[in-house]
Amino acid sequence: MKFQGSDQYVATPDLMLAVNAAVTLQRPLLVKGEPGTGKTMLAEQVAEAMGLPLLQWHIKSTTKAQQGLYEYDAVSRLRDSQLSGVGDSEKVRDIRNYIVKGVLWQAFTAEQPVALLIDEIDKADIEFPNDLLREIDRMEFYVYETRELIKAKHRPIVFITSNNEKELPDAFLRRCFFHYIKFPEAETMQRIVDVHFPGLKKELLGAALKTFYDVRNLPGLKKKPSTSELLDWLKLLVAEDIPLEVLQSKDEKVAVPPLVGALLKNEQDVTLFEKLVFMQRHNR
Ligand SMILES: Nc1ncnc2c1ncn2[C@@H]1O[C@H](COP(=O)(O)OP(=O)(O)OP(=O)(O)O)[C@@H](O)[C@H]1O
Ligand SMILES: [Mg+2]
After folding, report:
1. What is the number of other CB atoms lying within 10 angstroms of the CB of residue 166?
2. Using CA of residue 134, residue 140, residue 141, residue 147, what is the dihedral sign?
3. Best substitution site from 37, 190, 196, 235 to test ligand 1's pocket, by max atoms within 8 Å of Cβ?
4. Ligand 1 pocket, 10 CB below 6 A?
5. Ligand 1 within 6 A of 40 CB?
6. What is the pLDDT of residues 62-73, one digit of tens each?
């Protein structure tokens, strides 16, 4: 089945091509892009469109590769051995009762094919991707405690997202198909907004998009607002019933857009924006 986007997710042709290429190659799809450009949502939507359950592994700075495979719960075993009556000692003796399966194990042993999301891989330390090379390549790993080899019954469709906080090792990159989600152009953005706010008035959307791209194109901005911030802002504009005129900068009235806190997230950016508005007003 080819991925074509969905009624909740707008996929550009190059993104669809990338998803289908990764599926064909049976390699993980490594997705990069600015925050809020739909990387995580892509995995959810592809899984839904293909009718596959999605297993998610959200990576933090403390996450270790081993946790995705399995963990040996020695503490519970010790506690059980101390507390156990005669009947429980069977359980304590069998180490398998204390092996906690990780997400990769679950994905490998699932009865039906699944999709697997490894979200924000760049949050973990540099060894993390290297530690998963074999698992991702061969789709198998060895459990030392029980001396068994866990092999994938079906190759999962793997999505890996990164916000580029750290470089990924070459050996890891070699095993992935890469796609960078470019920031949507106005036309694509309009389609994305349509998906979320089908009934939005054309004029309001046009004016809001213009302000949004003006803000994004400000030189020297520390944090550019993203798709999800635009959607937040539009939601507020609709909820507060902000009139169109406030957004359309007439010659005599250039103002800081209302609720700009949805778009700009630090005081330097707000000050920069206010300065620009002030200068525009004086140049008139
Ligand atoms: N192509 C799109 N179609 C529809 N909605 C989108 C699209 N891109 C982004 N969105 C909206 O933006 C929100 C943020 O998307 P998502 O959480 O997937 O971003 P992300 O790239 O994973 O961000 P981060 O890097 O911060 O995790 C989504 O909940 C969705 O509402
Ligand atoms: Mg995300």
Report:
1. 15
2. negative
3. 37
4. yes
5. yes
6. 999 999 999 999
Mean pLDDT, rounded, of the chain = 91
Residue type, 272: L
* Beta carbon of 102 within 6 Å of any ligand 1 atom: no
Residue 101 is encoded by which pair of tokens?
Answer: 């399966």
pLDDT of residue 278: 80
What is residue 284's predicted lDDT score, i.e. its pLDDT?
Answer: 62
Closest to 148 in 3D by CA, of 184, 199, 95 = 95
Is-contact 179 18, C-beta < 8 A?
yes
> In sequence order, which residues have a C-beta less than 8 Å from that of residue 170 and are 6 or more positions away?
none
Q: What is the pLDDT of residues 78-118, one digit of tens each?
A: 998 888 766 678 888 899 999 999 999 999 999 999 999 99
Q: Angle, nearest 10°, between helix axes 186-196 and 202-216?
A: 130
Mean predicted confidence (pLDDT) in 246-268: 77
Strand ranges for 90-176 from DSSP E: 99-101, 115-119, 140-143, 148-151, 157-162
- Pairing assessment for the beta strands 99-101 and 54-58 based on DSSP bridges: unpaired
Ligand 1 centroid–CA 181 distance in Å is 11
pLDDT of residue 98: 95
Residue type, 84: S
